[in-house]
Amino acid sequence: MHKREAFREAFDRFDCRKVALYDETKIEDLMKNEKIIRNRLKIKSAIINAQQFINIQKEYGSFDSFIWSYVDNKPIENHFDTEGDIPARTALSDKISKDLKKHGFKFIGSTIIYAYMQAIGIVNDHVKSCHLYKA
């Protein structure tokens, strides 16, 4: 998280259309950037994922439509008592991860997908004692 701004700057503010066009010269520039994680496979996967993200947008109208179709556009409301009860992954995150890999995405495991599902509100994992639990 502490490198987020450096990544945002290095990857053109995460503009998928720009990242999708990165070439070997840009990859080499990124490999020299000491402010980010310089793993060639992960950098290349970011480019591939940007390309696949655009492909899904074209196929489904938007990535939003694609991802929310897994839950029929209704968030999953969980009822956990403690944060320790919250899983790192679920059968649904396994399925989405597998489907994204079929679409060509890289470095897109189930744990990452579950965290994404929480971040965008597909899954509401606020524990019962949290002030946001009912929201």
TrEMBL record:
Pfam families: Adenine_glyco. InterPro entries: Adenine_glyco (IPR005019), DNA-3mA_glycosylase (IPR052891), DNA_glycosylase (IPR011257). It comes from the Bacteria. This is DNA-3-methyladenine glycosylase I.
